[in-house]
Amino acid sequence: MIRKSTRALNGSQQRDQYQSNIIYSEAFDREQASYVSGSAAPDDFWREYSDEETHRRNKDVRLAARRNRQKAVYINLRYVMYMALLVACMTGALICYIKLKSDISSGNKEIAALESTLTELRASNDELYNEVHSDVDLEQIREIAIDEYGMKYADQDQIVVYSKAKGDRVHQIAGVTR
């Protein structure tokens, strides 16, 4: 509401100013518009409304509000069934989503457990491999092969070298003795 200093105005001017402020305030509240001043204001912006016209406008507003309330309250069976079906579909979709998230979570836990088992098995395998290779003495194996089994190194005439061209294969059928 606009308030102006009323000390400098006489009685009739104060009454006119008060009515003008009330009319402006009602127009402002009704139209929910921003303040309009000067030549931009429409001609009927400051006009006074009669009691009959105000009563008629209020009655129209009340009737419109009553119609809107009746429309909002009136819900037919088809609309209720549609909304129930929509809620059921959304509930089903939500349940499926939660189940999928649960499956993914349990799958991730299972993968993590299997990966930790794999890491443990690899560490154990590497440990056993190193243990086996640390116990092997190649010099002892060579001595046993030469002394006990009579093995000897190959002579130069026993070695046959094949040149391999790209795409060729060498297939040995039987051992060649000379």
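^ that was protein a. below is b, sequence first then the tokens
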Amino acid sequence: MSEGSLEAPTRHPIAWRDDDFYNADKLDAELRRVFDICHGCRRCFNLCDSFPRLFDLIDGAESGELDTVKSADFAPVIDACTLCDMCFMTKCPYVPPHEFDLDFPHLMLRARAAEARDKGVPFAEKQLTKTDRNGKLAAPVAPIANWATKTGNGLTRPIMQSVLGIHKDASLPKFTSKPFTSRAGTAPEVNPQGPAFGRKAVLYATCFSNYNNPDIAVSARAVLAKNGVETEVVYPSCCGMPQLEQGDIAGVAANASVVAGALKPWIEKGYDVIAVVPSCALMLKFEWPLIVPENADVITLSKATYDITEYIVDMGKKEGMAEGLKPLQGGVSIHISCHSRAQNMGQKGAEMLRLIPDTAIDVIERCSGHGGSWGIMKDNFDVALKIGKPVARKAAEKAAAHVVSECPLARDHILQGIERINQKPAEVSQVQHPIQLLALAYGL
């Protein structure tokens, strides 16, 4: 055994089909084992609200130790975990193969799965996980849906807070009336002179770029075509990250089977798979193989998947980039999202933007505090802004013309943080994702 996690961290398959996974006594024993180790270490105190809650809970107990803490009081600690994986990836010295075998995010997932099996997923949270259904229902009435969910709507947002528990001030993604898949029939012309001509890739559109901001996927496809990459679009189902957040592992497994089956023929024909949102890339690459390790299609897909920024950087290093990139005026602040970092691929979004000549790129690598659906809930929104305040403060100080994140939801959350600091709307472009900036630099 070596101290300090000197070996590369590894993860075990998630034993969600085993009864012991949900056994209350065994789960409680594991929570107490891990919480005791975390309380004695405290290296993760500044990552998210789970750890301050845990340390305050134990420090405030009668003995100042875990033995006088009631198991019923663990709930706030478990609820505050956003499954960002940053403790596992960047901080914890006791992750496997260390003998302490500590995987805090997956233990929180286990606790949520046990609660979901015992009590079910709360109504509001369950509806938020149905991203495909919500997107399909909203598309025909997108202007009305966007009016109803707009921050500042004094008629609908208080009702949403009361009924669904969504904070009335939390920024929510807009819906599009023309999902990306409905536009995918007309592919951009592939540049035969592009340096990467001969490459073929499938864009896994993701629910966000399909139903909320298709410009992300449109920009990705245009940049790839400019560089000679032939693309197809496939989107059979959501990756299941929203379900994972609520402990619905069986739902994630079902989505994995559908998506992997649909992408298998393309992989067999030599196509790479590109996800345009990092949470989805993380699911395809790393979470799915741990949930259904016996599914050969999932394993094959995990090895063929790239994040869009990762793919562009790889292409640039191996074949080079097509000419025509122009400087972006006013500079860029780019936030490296937690789920980008959890892919263990480096700051690929920043690397990609540095391909643009004579453009100031400022990198912010710290949690935005959003945490998927977690940060929009009434009980969490103010905490989410507090966690993300260092990110918002740095972006506000730089005052770049463009503030982007590889996670579009994190980007909008950062803008809300900037607004709180400056007491006025953030004066930045509407661009959310770095791939849109690369397309802009190409004039696409």
